[in-house]
Amino acid sequence: MLAKTDAIAIYDVTCDTPRSGFTAFEDAPVIEFVIPTKGLFVVDTLGRENVADVGSAVVLGAQQEYRVRHPATHGDACTVIIGQDALMEEALGSVAGSTRRLTTRQLLGAAVFTSALRASAWDDLEAEEIGLLLLNAAAATSVERAAGSSGALARRAARIEGVRALIASSPTIQWRLPTLARSVGCSPFHLVREFRAATGQTIGGYVCRLRLAQALDRLAAGEDNLATLALETGFAHHSHLTARFRRTFGMTPSALRGGLTRERMTTLRRVLEPTAG
């Protein structure tokens, strides 16, 4: 547990379950806001399968039935925020089985915040404030999947989710479009168009985002060898990682690593600014 007050609780959850099919259905006892920080899993809610990977968040409603499967072999980890029902509903709006996409700044903010919570105790007001900032930021980036989609839309959604799951299971692999397209039974041209239309980003951008998320997680855990970090997260070299990191997060890995030790509220507020992209 990272923090717990009368209004909100924040947990680190790690799952070492190997590759597996769906679990049995169970009910979420309270409203949960789940932010994956490593790996991926697939959540089936209301008859819809949602890939929960780094850069997304899943909202489970109170007493909502769901089940989970793990398509990757390396396990996964996430930050879970739980709060009073009225507070969560006010922050998130509709909470029944929705998936949210997080901006890069929101992803960075979540990493900085949870790293700071692990490093030292915060008072209740600070923990509640930043937890609610995370919820507020994610509420503005909701991606709701409409029920009763046509057959064509359902097939397209299945292809996109399949590609996301495949890439997220091994983001450091040097993926190629023909390989990805064959895995979901369409042409590379068709896949590129569909992926951009469905997610708002390119496949290459998605791969880079997942690699940066891995790097961010390791920096937050204390990694200090940037050359090794770059190679082990799929980047060609140290300068490649630094350039992509700066372009995405607005700072270098070294600057972030220093910032994580200062634990300043001003840093957290800046990276969590709702208008930041």
Please describe what this structure looks like.
The protein is α+β, with helices and mostly antiparallel strands and 277 residues long. The chain folds into two domains: 141 residues, Regulatory protein AraC (Jelly Rolls, Sandwich), CATH 2.60.120.280; 121 residues, Homeodomain-like (Arc Repressor Mutant, subunit A). 48% of the residues lie in helices and 20% in strands. The protein has a seven-stranded antiparallel beta sheet with strand order 1-2-9-4-7-10-11. It has a four-stranded antiparallel beta sheet with strand order 3-8-5-6, covered by helices on one side. The protein is globular and about 50 Å long.
Salient structural properties:
globular; four-stranded antiparallel beta sheet; single chain; alpha+beta; 277 residues; 48% helix; 2 domains; Arc Repressor Mutant, subunit A
Number of domains: 2
Q: Multimeric state of these chains?
A: single chain
Overall body shape:
globular
Q: What is the residue-mean pLDDT, rounded to a whole number?
A: 79
- Count of beta strands: 11
Q: Would you identify the CATH architecture of the largest domain?
A: Sandwich
Helix content: 40-55%
- Beta-strand residue percentage: 15-25%
Helical stretch tally: 11
CATH superfamily of the largest domain: Regulatory protein AraC
The CATH topology of the largest domain comes to Jelly Rolls
Alpha carbon gyration radius: 18 Å
* Secondary structural class: alpha+beta
Strand order of the largest sheet: 1-2-9-4-7-10-11
Secondary-structure element order, as H and E? EEEEEEEEEHEHHEHHHHHHHH
Report on the biggest sheet: 7 strands, antiparallel
Q: Give the termini distance in whole angstroms.
A: 29 Å
Q: Please give the CATH class of the largest domain.
A: Mainly Beta
